[in-house]
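Troubleshooting log. The previous run stalled partway through. Resubmitting the same two chains, unchanged.
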Amino acid sequence: MERTALPRRLEWQLGRVVAVVDETPRVKSLVFDVPGWAGHTAGQHVDVRLTAEDGYQAERSYSLASPPEERQITLTIERLDDGEVSPYLTDVLQEGDQLELRGPIGGYFTWHLADGGPLLLVGGGSGIVPLMAMIRHRAAHTSTVPTRLLSSSRAFEEIIYRQELAQLAAIDTTLMVTQTLTRQQPPDWTGYRRRIDHAMLAEVAWPPSERPLAFVCGPTALVETVASALVELGHDPLCVKTERFGPTGGAA
Amino acid sequence: MTSDEQQLDGNAAGGILGQIFAFEMTTAEVICANCDTVGPIGATAVYATAMGTIVRCTSCGEALIRIAHGPQRYWVDFSGTQLLQLYATE
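Second attempt completed without errors. Output:
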């Protein structure tokens, strides 16, 4: 549907918070009702604008976590202790409050069912958010596009969407979820215990001959490591799309 | 986006570009005026500060697009762009 939409310029619009969900100790999901929302594609983001009483404005970009199938939109936000915007969103904003949003934005780091697969999704920390929109979009259509997710978090309790991912993977043999924990692991942890590297990608990623569509999102260092390792492993650089975000705590 | 030289992907310029242009700009293809590299804006490097947004060529570092935002106006400098191909749908 969004593919045939007439071009339009983006405008700031108001969204109202209808729910706040705790995801991890530092991460919350905010669900918004946005009247006149134009619809979106999995992987897109919105800009959020805060205006202080003196007129000072701060803008940040946040990925959409919700799939296009949901009428309300969800942003999943990691609290950065020295952040200008995220502490307000995670600590102050409450159900019923309004927020200025501009979006949906981006047609590059996006995935639509019709794009097919196989899919290789690699995320670090809150870099999983746009990848989750793709996984949810896929699940909403009970799609069997073969999908592998490799997600890196610092500790078990910091894995965003942990239960939902486990549940989806349990009922869907075409979805494989691999977690790595870089700093702290539970005593019985049998998964990876290090940052994502060349060797891990060689084990988890599809063979290049499968020509997967790869989406990599996370802190700059992780994105660069993963993107260059994938190309070294023989993946087509044109099939490796990246989205890096700024100093968001170096989640992975 | 809090430090001065924070590099992001071209996606990060999608918001401000989308406010100025009616087309989806992250899939628009840009040809660098300096080194002739071709690619979607989404795959470029973006440096965003409170002063403005600079879209750079990942091959040679040329400033493809510079945008500053002032009261009721935008300044857009395309001197580093040789050609821009905009897709009418998607």
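Takeaways: Residues 247-252 of chain A have pLDDT under 50 and may be disordered. Chain A touches chain B at residues 2-5, 7-11, 45-47, 59-61, 82-84, 102-103, 105-109, 220, 241-247 (CB under 8 Å).
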